[in-house]
Amino acid sequence: MAAPLVDHASGASTSRLSLPFQIRLLATTATGFFAGSFLGVSYGSQTAGLRFRAENAHRLPTSSTGWFLYHKSKNYHMMLGAIKEGLKMGSKVGFWVGGFFVVEEAIDRVRGGRADFLSTVVAGLSVAGGFSAWHRFPLITATRTARIGLLSGLAFGLTEDALGLVKGRRPFYVDFILGSRDASEKDVI
């Protein structure tokens, strides 16, 4: 029988990353939102600045006061563009990161509480497929996205398993591979 996802007697030591699902979901979604916001602010401010420049290229100022007001207006447009794009990009990244962890947890529960890298790989591929379908990518781009999802899920899953192994939670596949040796060692002891 696989270990439960949350062992109430010992706390969250059997959970992934030693965190209950609700806390893990909140933390990772917030991290994804802030990372996406940072990228969105950078991109949005640059785009808004270039757009302002293009829209006002036909009426450039001629005096120093005019240039001061031009740059002041440009900076306001850049800040507004940065905030809009930051919120938009942060929401998108937070949504997809949250979706990844929800799918990972759902697969763990469907598999009877077995929390190992296989669930993370399937979650990575599922979210990559959903992302590709949502954006209607062509087959070549969808394949590239699936490969990135596979490799990211594999790397993240093996990292989670390594951290769990350090904390004393052996993944299912280790018991499966070493099952015959562990049984003979238990008989000797």
Structural class: mainly alpha
Number of strands: 0
Radius of gyration: 24 Å
Query: Could you tell me how far the N terminus lies from the C terminus, measured between alpha carbons in angstroms?
Result: 22 Å
> Which outline best applies?
elongated
Element order, helices and strands?
HHHHHH
Approximately what portion of the residues adopt beta-strand conformation? Answer: under 5%
Number of helices: 6
The major pleated sheet works out as: none
What is the mean pLDDT?
A: 88
Indicate the percent of residues in helices. over 70%
Q: Which spans of ≥5 residues are poorly predicted at pLDDT below 50?
A: 1-12
Question: What characteristics describe this protein?
Answer:
disordered N terminus; 6 helices; mainly alpha; elongated
What is the topological layout?
Layout: H1 21-55, H2 64-110, H3 117-134, H4 139-166, H5 172-177, H6 179-188
Helix pairs in contact: 1-2, 2-3, 3-4
Detailed description of the structure:
- The protein is mainly alpha-helical and 189 residues long.
- It contains six helices and no strands.
- The protein has helices spanning 21-55, 64-110, 117-134, 139-166, 172-177, 179-188.
- Helix 2 (64-110) packs across helix 3 (117-134).
- The radius of gyration is 24 Å and the shape is elongated.
- Mean pLDDT is 88; it is low at 1-12.
Task: Describe the structure concisely for a colleague.
By secondary structure, the protein is an all-alpha fold. It has six helices and no strands. The radius of gyration is 24 Å and the shape is elongated.
